[in-house]
Amino acid sequence: MKRLFIHHPLFRLLSPLFSGTLVYLLILLINNTINELGENFFGQELYVCIALAYLIQELARLSIVIFRHLNRPKSFLLRLVLQVVSTFLATIVLVSGSMYLYFVKILHYEPNLTELLIFNSIFSVISLIYVLLYVSHQFLHKINVEKLQKEEWARLKMEEDFARFKQEINPLLLFESLEAILMVMKNNVDKAEEVTDSFASMYRHLLSNRKNEVIPLDQEMEALDEFLSVQEHLPYRRIQLVKSFKEKTWIIPGTLVQIIEVIMRSTIPSKTNELAIEILDSGNTIEIKYKHEEKLNKTLNINSLNKLENNYQYYSGTPLEVAHNPHDKTIKIPKLQML
Which superkingdom heads the taxonomic lineage of this protein's source (predicted)? Predict the structure, then answer.
C-alpha cells in the first residue's frame, strides 16, 4: 500500500492554508462578525490561524510517526486511546500558549476562557481528523494485507494442485504409452490389447491411489510391473529388473514408478544393452541400484527427486539419498512403518 497522503510534502504545504482559512471563517461566524468578512478578510487574524494550522498539523503528523514506531502498549485499542489523548493535550497546550502570546504581545490584553475554548475546540477537531485518517489507513492496510495473503495462499494452492495433477497424469509418460500402443497395433492387434490393458492398469493404480498417503509395497510393485510392460514396446527401453524383499513395508504411491522413469530418461538408450536395475531390501531402506550411463545433458541427482525427498522427509523424518560411484548409482528409500 502507498504511503498515507498526509506525509506528502505538497499536502503538508497546502492543506494548512485551507484549514487555517476555514478556522478563521468559523471564528468569524461564531463571533457574529461575518458581515465584516469583505473588509478585513486578509487581516492579521487570518495569518495567525494559518500559522496555527501549520503547527497543529505538523504536531499531529509527528504524533502519528512516533506512535507508529512504538511497540508498547501491545493493544492496538489502548495505543490508539493513548495517541488521541496525548495529541489532544499537546494541541491544547500549543494552541493555548500560542494564543496567549498573540493576545498579550500583539493585542496587549489577556484572552478570556471563551476565546481559548473556541480556538482549542476547532484545532482539536483538526488533530482528531488527522488521527482518524491514520487509523482508517491502518485498518484499510490490514484488510488489504489479509486479502492479499488469502489470494496468495489460493494461488499457491492452485499451483500446487496443478503440479500434483500434472505429476499424477504425467503427460510425457501418457503420450509415450499411447505411441507404444499405436506402434504395436500396426503389427499385432492382439498384442496391442495386452499393452492397452497394462497401460490402463498402470494409470488405474496411479490415479486410484492419489489420495492415499501410503500404500503397501506389493501394490506399488504391481504398478511398476505394468509400467515396465508398456515401456518394453518403446524403442531402446529394455529393462532387466531384479527384486528381492525380506518383509512387507509401506511406501508413498508412485515412488518406484517415478524413480524408474527418471532413471530411464537420464540413461543413454541402447539397441543392444539392457538397463539392469536391482530393487533390494536393505535394513531400514529400500535400495534401487543400477549401472549408470547417463546422458550428457541430464543426470540423476537428488534434485531430480525433490518432491519425493520432501514427502519422505515429512513422513519418516529421513530423506531420500542418492549415492553414486564411477560405476553405479543407488537410490535409498526409507521404509515407512504403520503404527
Answer: Bacteria
| C-alpha cell recorded at residue 177 | 504409452
* Cα–Cα dist 153/157, whole Å: 6
Give every residue of the chain whose pLDDT is below 50, as ranges.
Answer: 1
Q: What is the pLDDT of residue 1?
A: 43
How many whole angstroms separate alpha carbon 229 and alpha carbon 326? 30
- The per-residue pLDDT for 236 is 61
Domains of the chain: 5-164 (no CATH), 171-334 (3.30.565)
pTM over cut 0.70: no
Instruction: Give the residue from 168, 333, 325 showing the smallest Cα distance to 259.
Output: 333
Residue of 79, 81, 86 whose CA lies nearest to 63: 86
Whose CA is closest to 231, among 183, 296, 186, 280? Answer: 183
**227 contacts 203 by C-beta, under 8 angstroms:** no
Q: Which three cell numbers stand for residue 162?
A: 496443478
